[in-house]
What we know:
Largest sheet of chain A: 8 strands, mixed
Number of strands of chain A: 14
Strand content of chain A: 25-35%
Structural class of chain A: alpha+beta
Shape of chain A: globular
CATH superfamily of the largest domain in chain A: L-amino peptidase D-ALA esterase/amidase
Oligomer: homodimer
Radius of gyration of chain A: 22 Å
CATH topology of the largest domain in chain A: L-amino peptidase D-ALA esterase/amidase
Amino acid sequence: MNIYLPQGYRFSAVHCGLKSDPKLYDLSLVVSDIPAVAAGVFTPNLVCGAPVQVDRNRVPGEGFRAVVANSRCANACTGEQGIRDAEEMAALASQSVGGTFHQGLVMSTGVIGTMLPMDKIRNGIAAAAAELTATETGFLNAARGIMTTDTVEKYVTKSFTPESGETIRLAGICKGAAMIAPKLATMLAVIVTDAALEPLTAQRLLQTAAEESFNCISVEGHTSTSDTLLLLANGAASPIPLHGDSLEQFANVLRELCTELAVKIPADGEGGSHLITIDVEGCPNREDAKRIARKVAEDALVKTAICGADPNWGRIVSAAGTAGVPFNPKKVSLKLNGFELFKNGEPIPFDKKIVSDSIRGHRDTHIQLTFNEGNAGIRFWTTDLTTEYVRLNSDYTT
Amino acid sequence: MNIYLPQGYRFSAVHCGLKSDPKLYDLSLVVSDIPAVAAGVFTPNLVCGAPVQVDRNRVPGEGFRAVVANSRCANACTGEQGIRDAEEMAALASQSVGGTFHQGLVMSTGVIGTMLPMDKIRNGIAAAAAELTATETGFLNAARGIMTTDTVEKYVTKSFTPESGETIRLAGICKGAAMIAPKLATMLAVIVTDAALEPLTAQRLLQTAAEESFNCISVEGHTSTSDTLLLLANGAASPIPLHGDSLEQFANVLRELCTELAVKIPADGEGGSHLITIDVEGCPNREDAKRIARKVAEDALVKTAICGADPNWGRIVSAAGTAGVPFNPKKVSLKLNGFELFKNGEPIPFDKKIVSDSIRGHRDTHIQLTFNEGNAGIRFWTTDLTTEYVRLNSDYTT
């Protein structure tokens, strides 16, 4: 995969003592050499981490120089001291490249309710600043520093040339605990671009892209205290803010990048053995389709059935029926891996072995639910529920 | 435990070939020797079983003679034929004791989307009618006939004597797949009493009792297609409908019986290793408290933590924050098995080993969440999430 790194950014990661294995990075730094516009999308959880509270007060805005992120400790439910620690992290990150204390942003993932070991963090930021580089290695290291038990670093880069001018590059990293991780399914992501964007435009594009990507994945339905998606746009490719067709092109590329990044989260299955794609179609509106898709995606009985290659489609239809969305059960049809199992409210006889074999041993599973109530639809992604997931999540803090 | 059976009822169960093990009952019959008033509470799932559709059109009402219930096949998502089969089951049950075709009620639990083997059902009802008895054995057999992988039959009986007259008895049976069962967490329950009740009174009392009992348990958040709670009141103890203090006494006893029955569902843990009691207090109203309690109860990360005796209390507070109920995180406090771990938004240092030991090896776990936003509260019950649950639910229909 070609890597397209935007101009004017540097990246690094270090091990500062948060993870027990000294070979693993646990703190990442992303800086813009020139002040950048920043936008952000954050967890709707009322109980949100201190970093979320700090960043949310700063974006959308301009003049940002640095984003620092750590794993192992979420700095959530940590009271007033937690807020002070998050503010200090953001300030140290910005100051490490000559910025002011309020030109930084911060993200944390890990255990809730424990205080950040600030001595390690301070040393870590200083060390990371010394390692900053505009190379691919620096970029990949930054992706590694926010991993929890993700099995691979997650990144996507894109490049396009609008009619209006210089080539624009976008590069995103993310971590997703998802099924694979013994902790909250915290999602952290940073996307950097050398496009120039107005702050409110950046915020609008990021929210739209998130809605169709990061907001269309779920693992166990637990919205973390710390979910954070940040976009930095420094205008290094061209200082003139994108507009018109060029802006629309950028929006499309950003959405593609977000979708590719987001799907990497349920696809990285340490505990999970299937990536389940759920298409809900024929709804009166997109919101209804999403509520149904989310309900199916988060249903333990659907997920265990897929884990066991069990074509127990009744669980899928039943889960849909509890989504709080009105529909006529007699107009519902369902396909599993292309096999039509339920049509207009009547079961279709099928060969269980053939359908089961289509699930077993294949990482991708496809559920299609059609309601014949309208023309809106949505695509949603999740994983299955395995004994490995339970094992991982049964012993984390202790 | 003393068993108090109401007058004028008979019970039986048979093996009619639905379960593969011929030693296991799979069809139960409960009859009233005189026409009884019936009330019912049913699943809110839009995709509901044919028996639910049939019963819901009949209760509350009077003149009922029989309830028939089968396991192994839910008769849900079975189209028009499913409705005809459910109506025939109800009719055969009533006719088997001399009633008319519309004096029966029906309940089914099991796999969704497969048709009832009606030949077996017809023979089963005839055989069950021949076995009817007013003895404790008949009652316990009826409780066994609706078991799926419940490890014990579930029943509660009560007796009280109101000032107004004759001793009143109530007897309830239920099955709960819950954590313990490789299928939807279908809940079926039948309560019979020899009190006399007006139909609409019976319905009101049953709904109130269900709200504080069966509606306060959850396993994985999947509301089945088939949840059914029926109450029969035949007036055999005294034909005069209860009213005033006697009715209030009855309502209290009914609520106690429903609560004791309901808690048996999460408590019966084939897959589950803990019964988790969740007290949510200090909310502005009961509905808010319930939404928070349900969110915590259904959270995979909370449940896996308890499974692993991991005092990872941050997951509990985080789950509460996503319930859609407004509260101030700085006013939240949390106790786990009596240990205060979070107070007014600040973490309290604690000995992880001591708290972990209080979870490990003890079947009961107690979570107390206090919000300091009002005076309403609720008690909710659930189980933990174990590898055994996943194993059981990964291979059911095939």
